[in-house]
Amino acid sequence: MGFLQKILRGFAKGRRDPWHEKYDIEKRQEKLQQMKLSKKLQANIDLIEKITGSSSDLIIRKFRIGATVDAAIVCLDGMIKEAVIDEMLHSLIVESIRDRWLRKLDISAANVLNDLLPVHDVVEADNLADLFDHISIGDTCVLIDGQSTALLCDSKGKTSRAISEPATEQTLRGPRDSFVEDLRTNTSLIRHRIRVPHLWFEEIQIGRLTRTKVEMVYIKGLANEGLIKEVRDRLNRIDTGSILESGFIEEFIEDQPLSIFPTVMETERPDKVCACLVEGRVAILTQGTPYALLVPTELVMMLQSPDDYYEKFPLAAFTRIMRIGAFLTAMMVPGLYVAVVTFHPELMPTNLLIRIAAAREGVPFPVLVEVLILDGLFELLREAGVRLPMAIGQALSIVGALIIGDAAIRAGIVAPSVVIVIALTAIASFVTPIFSLGIAVRLVRFIFTIAGAVLGIFGIQFVLLLLAVHLCSLRSFGVPYLTPVAPFVLRDMKDNILRLWHWKLPTRPKFLGQRDVQREDPSYSVRPDPSQRSREGG
Amino acid sequence: MKQPEEKINNRQLFIILFMIRSTVLMSFLPVLTSADALQDAWVAAVISFFPVALLLYLICRTVQGYPDMTAVDYMQNLLGRWVGKVVSAFLIFVFLHMAAAEGRIYAAVITIDFLTETPLVFVLGTVLVLGAVAAHAGIEVIGRCADLVMPVFFIILLGSLLISTPLFADGLSNLEPVLARGFGPPLRASVVPTGAAARFLVLTMLTRTLNQPRKVLRISMASFTLSTIMLIIASLVVVVVLGPHKGARTVFPLFTMIRTIQLSEFLERVEIFAIFAWAFGTFIGVSVLLYCATKGLSQLLGLRTYRPLIGPVFLFVLTNANHTWRDLFQLRTFYHPDLYGPWVLLVFLLTVGLPYAVHVLRGSRSDHVR
Q: Do the chains contact at B130 and A466, CB–CB below 8 Å?
């Protein structure tokens, strides 16, 4: 008996379905790519159920076309628009009987596609990989008995949230819309603004498991062909399991992965993306995230805000200079303070020096430790503030800034001047419009502080020059990171540290190497021709 | 895979030459010229213009004959394989020696004036590390760095010279009597600023990386003229403000002069800004010299890339800079006309005169044959 049991168990083992037990994810993907649809409806349905494990959201509805041929639709609950499915079923079940009776219609895939499917976008597929690709984005698959071709009908239901104001890049003036998680909504936001057919969207699927849709956006004929090819090549080279946010892509395509400075800019503002596109840059949109990527990116670009272009020239120029000042302040002021107090007190006016010395009387730590403690505390508060709901966040900042700061001074742990320095730094660090650049500045600030404590102002200068060498050696898709300052390009300085009047910006940035550099008629003048004016004035 | 050729443009070469010429002059040179010439230091500066211009002409003419070669290549072409190699090696040594001297002067200024407790080798290390890092990044990056720091460098130096003008009215008499002892002392004093033009030897390595090698003479002459004007102004200002004798005795007269300036009630000791600017120039100088030396060395050794040589060369220069001169006064002695004059004469004869002579002879012979 034992022998017989053994044989039976052996048979059972042999029959065990490899899809359930044996295949790991690599194998499953590989098998899926090879599998073709069969002509038998039931076999196809069984296969789909087997591969999906009869997932709870899988809908398989069997019916008959023209009351004669067996068929089924396959779709995923929650991804579809029910009205489209109902209309399809009505046509396939009810209308088909009439059609068949009237016209003696032969029920083939081609005829069903031409005569019976009231759907605008239908794709034919003969393999399972394509089938799952489509139903996973909300399409519906029609399988017909006797046909080895599946019809994949567009029935996507939008699950996107409404377009809202940008959360991280707010402006006083300018459009209030921002990207959302849905890719199509995002592309439409760009299309609304740039209404030429030369605005091209190129779709690339990245991620073996997530199969994330990524769109490369550029204006054909304006963006440099070499740049487009480079972006396409770098995107195609990405081989990874999953892409869940554009940050994943950023790390794969950047020129210098070791640098802490971002060489790819992220934004959630459609107006910013459009401004870059019309300069000849390339944007990368990713399904599932409101953050678009822009390449190539220079450092100065990250210190600019859309406000600069919407406000009048002098005001915009002033805020831009202030922002660059804030960028330097956020990076260097604690280091400079430590350096001056520790090594070069002679640089300070005597009265100020006496005051600072008096305030530091009894403080138990060296200046460096004081600054590091307060700076660390501030970073902690900021990080906590990001995670907390807004209402509690305010309470936290009050506790952090007012109570701890005040108590620390009263207890004699830190000097008031250090609190002023760190507060100034904190305010300045919030001025940087791009968050990823802000993080880089925070890290560099600590290095400056320590260098200031080791070698004084010369330490600061040492780090400053190291930073200069590093920034000068960075490139973003072939464009030097510090352009147009280093290498110096006079023509591009008109929209750099300052922004001149819009009518004074006749050319696009030179270093991008676009195919059409001229932006507007260079002979344009805001004041009309005097002869014309006198005629008009009559 | 063959790496794409690194290129710098004319403006960047202009800035590099200007900075490497100005730095030594700013920190150190007025004392050297005025040591002999006293109140006529500025005359020495004017005189030095002519021999250096000639030197530039010779360098550029030779280099333009071989626009796609560096010194190491064309020396072997002109002087024969072995002699060429020996002269190239000498040229590379000159680069390294100048880098060591430059770093040493910087470190000396810092440790004497500001960080008196810090060991010299530590400060020396920082400036040479900076140069090595930049040289490793390549000449393109050095060119961009030059673009970046030039405005700061120029504005601060010009500013520190200009803010001394209120002191001018009292001190103008310091310049008199003009040429009281004839042309002898200024002529002797002009040896050192002429010798400091040995830094222009970097042209023999850099011209190949230029976008437009044809314009190298024009650019270097323009750059040199500007730096000479700065030198003349600096000599004038130092003598006027400090007086001829104090100016001649002080170790870093320009910085001492700036220290005497008090901006309004609360800002004193502004010379730190001048030193800040000067350090930018030193950085560019050291990095260009290290780049030229390692690049030349790699060609001499037949290596494909110069980058692995940066580390050993850095250590060599650091040791050299630390041990060649016992203290600042020995360094000053080295820059004395009696010692420095023959040395640079040897350098110029071997690395400029000899190749140029062969180049001209060979050129005229080939003309004759034609």
A: yes
ipTM of this complex prediction, to 2 decimal places: 0.91
The amino acid present at A63, given as its one-letter code, is F
Q: Measured between CA atoms, how close is B283 to chain A, in angstroms? A: 8
Give the span between the Cα atoms of A176 and A162, in whole angstroms.
13
Partner-chain contact B114 A488, CB within 8 Å:
no
> Does the pLDDT of residue B134 top 90, yes or no?
yes
Kindly tell me the sign of the dihedral angle through the C-alpha atoms of A156, A160, A162, A168.
negative
Residues A462, A451 contacting (CB under 8 angstroms): yes
Pairing of strands A140-144, A69-76: antiparallel
Average pLDDT (B346-368) is 83
The whole-angstrom distance between B73's CA and the closest CA on chain A is 28
Q: Model's pTM, two decimal places?
A: 0.88
| A456 vs B: CB within 8 A | yes
In angstroms and rounded to an integer, the radius of gyration of the C-alpha atoms of chain A is 32
CATH topology of domain B18-354: Amino acid/polyamine transporter I (1.20.1740)
Sequence-distant (≥ 6) Cβ neighbours of residue B278 within 8 angstroms: B23, B26, B27, B106, B109, B153, B157
Write the DSSP assignment of A364-377 as a string of letters. -S-HHHHHHHHHHH
Residue pair A415/A360 in contact by the 8 Å Cβ criterion: yes
Return the higher-pLDDT residue of B202 and A361. B202
Looking at this protein, which amino acid is placed at residue B21?
R
Q: Do B133 and A482 touch (CB under 8 A)?
A: no
Residues of A in contact with B130 (CB under 8 A): 462, 465-466, 469
Instruction: Give me the residue from A455, A459, A485 closest to B147, CB to CB.
Output: A485
φ, ψ for residue B210, nearest 5 deg: -75, 145
A464-494 per-position pLDDT tens digit? 999 999 999 999 998 999 988 888 888 888 8
The token pair that represents A82 in the structure block: 């029910």
For B45-99, what is each residue's pLDDT tens digit? 888 899 999 999 999 999 988 888 889 999 998 998 999 999 999 999 999 999 9
> What does the alpha-carbon distance between residue A160 and residue A102 come to, in Å, rounded to a whole number?
43
- Sequence-separated (6 or more) residues with CB below 8 Å from residue B364: none
pLDDT digits (tens, 9 = 90+) for B169-212: 777 777 777 777 777 778 888 888 888 889 999 999 999 899 88
Give B44's contacts (C-beta < 8 A, 6+ positions apart).
Answer: B33, B34, B36, B37, B185, B186, B187, B189, B190, B193, B235
State whether residue A488 sits within 8 Å of chain B by CB. yes
C-alpha distances in angstroms, A231 versus A20, A271, A295? 40, 21, 8
Which residues of chain A from 335 to 394 reach within 8 Å of chain B, CB to CB?
343-344, 346-347, 349, 351-352
State the Rg of chain B over Cα: 20
B286 touches chain A (CB under 8 A): no
Q: Which two tokens stand for residue B110?
A: 């810092």
Taking the mean position of all CA atoms in its chain, how far away is CA B50? 17
Name the residue facing A488 among B147, B268, B272 (closest C-beta): B147
Phi, psi of B25 (to 5 degrees): -60, -40
With an 8 Å Cβ cutoff, are A482 and B276 in contact?
Answer: no
Mutate to test the interface with A, among B7, B11, B109, B115 (most CBs of A within 10 A): B115
Is A328 in the B-facing interface, judged by CB distances under 8 Å?
Answer: no
Which residues share a beta bridge with A203? A215
CA-nearest residue to B134 within chain A is A469
The Cβ of residue A434 has, within 10 Å, a number of other Cβ atoms equal to 20
